[in-house]
């Protein structure tokens, strides 16, 4: 993590650079445990020194965060624990934007258009009935009275069929519980560190 030269050119990561880091730090006591030399772990915890080493990074952090609380001897790096880093667009105001969620709860608006089929086993049907009527066609009617039956007491039978509908309605039952689902892709955890 130290500076070096290549083809007589001095190579160094600029202050404010962030990199993934899986190693342990060289500082094991005091206010900056676990930080590798020249870097601080991005854990959102305050770092305090007395030799002014944070001067350049403090100015960068103050501009980035829109604050004036970082000084040459005291800084608070961004907290990148459990976070992904996403490149910003050309607008400077989006440089410190945050967002996203580890889970999502789906609703009907998230689903593609689709349909459901239902089957009704008892649809419209019909009934037949047979009615017997006394044959009085051989007799003249009398006002105010029922005509008597003919001498043979014959009955004529008429069949009639009446269509009927059941008025059945149907609906489908709800399925699912609406529980949130994770949308975190496969990952490996490690620290992010920032150069000062």
Automatic annotation (TrEMBL):
This is Uncharacterized protein.
């Amino acid at each position: 993590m130290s500076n070096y030269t290549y083809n007589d050119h001095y190579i160094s990561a600029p202050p404010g650079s962030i990199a993934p880091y899986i190693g342990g730090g060289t500082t094991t006591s005091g206010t900056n445990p676990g930080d590798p030399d020249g870097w601080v772990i991005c854990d959102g915890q305050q770092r305090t020194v007395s030799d002014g080493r944070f001067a350049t990074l403090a100015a960068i952090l103050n501009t980035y965060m829109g604050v004036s609380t970082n000084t040459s001897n005291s800084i608070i790096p961004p907290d990148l624990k459990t976070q992904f880093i996403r490149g910003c667009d050309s607008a400077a105001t989006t440089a410190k934007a945050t967002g996203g969620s580890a889970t999502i709860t789906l609703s009907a608006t998230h689903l593609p258009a689709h349909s459901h089929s239902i089957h009704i086993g008892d649809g419209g049907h019909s009934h037949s009935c047979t009615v017997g009527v006394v044959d009085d066609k051989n007799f003249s009617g009398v006002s105010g009275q029922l005509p008597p039956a003919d001498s043979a007491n014959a009955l004529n039978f008429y069949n009639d069929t009446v269509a009927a509908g059941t008025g059945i309605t149907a609906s489908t039952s709800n399925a699912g519980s609406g529980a949130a689902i994770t949308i975190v892709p496969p990952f490996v955890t490690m620290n992010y560190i920032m150069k000062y």
